[in-house]
Amino acid sequence: MAGRGEWTDAAWERIEPLLPRVDGRGRPWRDHRQVVNGVLWRLRTGAPWRDLPERYGPWQTVYERFARWEADGTWAKLLEHVQVRDDAVGRVEWTVAVDSTVNRAHQHAAGARKKGPQTGTNCKIRAARRRARPSVGPEAG
């Protein structure tokens, strides 16, 4: 029986053949299932590798296997296999999520006019036009 967030027996039977085999040279490898469950625990919790519970083995072993399999494409192969197989039998529900978050720039970053006297070429042209207009009214004499 698998613990929370760990591979079930049925799921493990599907992915185990895709994992690298122990080649018989050097020290024997720690059980792949134990290590993969440790990787899943770490990814699910977001905790540092050093906080990995002892039931998954030494954190260094779990991290090294994770990094090795990332470098050699093992994780990508597992993901592709599971997605293709499950999609073929209708088990994958492809959902699209759109984030409607709106980010606005501060008014000064957005080019809003700053308080104080207007400066710049366009402001000077507008001011000159206002001064050049003929006065209309009783004072215009």
TrEMBL record:
Pfam families: DUF4096
Insertion element IS402-like domain segment(s): 8-78
InterPro entries for the chain: IS402-like_dom, Transposase_6_like
Top-rank taxon, per record: Bacteria
Residue span of region Disordered: 106-141
Ranges annotated as biased composition (Basic residues): 106-116
Name this polypeptide is given: Insertion element IS402-like domain-containing protein
